[in-house]
Amino acid sequence: MKVHTPKNVGEIVQRVWDSGFITEGELSDEFEYKFGQYIGNENTCLVNSCTNGLVLISRLLGIEKGDEIISTAMTCMATNEPFFNDGAKLVFADIDKNTGNICPKSIEEKITKKTKAIVIVHWGGQPCDMQEILDIGKKYNIKIVEDAAHALRSSYKGEKIGNHGDFVVFSFQAVKHLTTADGGAIACKSKEDAERIRKLRWFGLDRKYEGPSRWEQDIKESGFKFHMNNMNACIGLEQLKHIDSLIDRHVENGYYLKKKISSRHVKALHCKDDRRSSFWIFSVLVEDKNKFKEHMKSKGIATDVAHVSNLRYTVFDQFKDNNLKNLEYFDSRLMNIPCGWWVSYQDLIKITNAVNAYKG
After folding, report:
1. Which letter does DSSP use for residue 71 in this model?
2. How far is CA 100 from the centre of its chain?
3. Which residues make beta-bridge pairs with 147?
């Protein structure tokens, strides 16, 4: 993974620093508006990390000890820890072993009267089976939370991710498609939820308050300090100018790899025709991960897993489920090969030749 750095971003950051207006302000407001426009959802709120976005969502869901959250274990621990920290019981559904995404059938099998929300992750940028998941949410009156940390500009049936579930979180962490050094955003289905989040991210105060002093307004709900500042926002505004060209490279490289990989010992993930992946990472499945990693290393190509099943972590021992066979299959075989904006055509040839030379 590499961090995209616009050539003039240092000068821009310096100007903001020198201005003295470095906390939340005009630039964060501008970035919030422009990012919302980019994904097509005006109910979008900036936060200082994707993880803290999930903390705020947990508050809006009213998560308490004993509530159940149906989620996927095939993700970064940051997806599930905010709900666990609020006392939720994590109920892990199985995944589709061909995509890495949560399985709708498994979700429905896990629903109980205590289920408070369904949390999904668009693995690598490939959207989940949204229609089936949304139908389940509607049937049981359960909120849908999307972790779209991998999925900026991904789309499902022609509509960008950020416009389907009740809450969608994006990540601007260092190696994501769009980075602000760190940061994130929450896209909400309702305007009311967005307005509440904007208060909760700053102690419970409304920064747009028009009275004599914003500090004189009443705090009706205790909040946090999760807002994004002008320093991160100015980086985000500059990155937005380049984001389509960067994601175009990810997508072009991803489809090239899918077309050219022919080794019977390396299986690329399935991409469904009614959705488009942003290819944040390019995942493959191999029988012997260590052998594949050493083979690629010998060819001068780095590989990694990106994330592992959350059920490997001791903190989640109480939620172990021995019936998640597709998850076990996927986690034991997952590797990722380079496909990012920095990968040249010559690099792609080198990578595919190395993959296709792998004998398993």
Report:
1. E
2. 14
3. 121, 169
- End-to-end distance of the chain based on CA atoms, in angstroms? 25
118, 70 in Cβ contact below 8 A? yes
Helix axis angle for 191-200 and 50-61, nearest 10°, is 120
**Confidence band for 209, pLDDT divided at 50, 70 and 90:** confident
Beta strands, E only, 99-209: 115-121, 143-147, 155-156, 159-160, 167-171, 184-188
| Contact present, 282 and 337 (Cβ < 8 Å) | yes
Residue 286 token pair:
């191999």
The two tokens of residue 23 are: 């906390």
Indicate the Cα dihedral angle 176, 122, 340, 331, nearest 10°. 110
Rounded to an integer, what distance in angstroms lies between the CA atom of residue 264 and that of residue 194? 48
- pLDDT tens digits along 274-332: 999 999 999 999 999 999 999 999 999 999 999 999 999 999 999 999 999 999 999 99
* 294 backbone φψ class: left, alpha, beta (φ>0; ψ -120 to 50): alpha
DSSP-assigned beta bridge partners for residue 144: 118
98-115 residue pLDDT tens: 999 999 999 999 999 999
Instruction: Return the closest-CA partner of residue 337 out of 277, 284, 260, 297.
Output: 284
At CA 283, angle to CA 94 and CA 300, rounded to 5?
150
Alpha helices in the chain (DSSP H): 9-19, 26-39, 50-61, 81-85, 104-110, 130-140, 191-200, 230-240, 243-260, 289-298, 325-333, 345-356
* Percent of the chain scoring above 70 in pLDDT: 100
Structure tokens at 344: 């040249």
Strand 267-268 vs strand 184-188: parallel, antiparallel, or unpaired? unpaired
pLDDT tens digits, 18-72: 999 999 999 999 999 999 999 999 999 999 999 999 999 999 999 999 999 999 9
Residues comprising the chain, all counted:
360
Asked if 91 contacts 246 with a C-beta cutoff of 8 angstroms, the reply is no
Q: What pairs with residue 282 in β-bridges?
A: 337
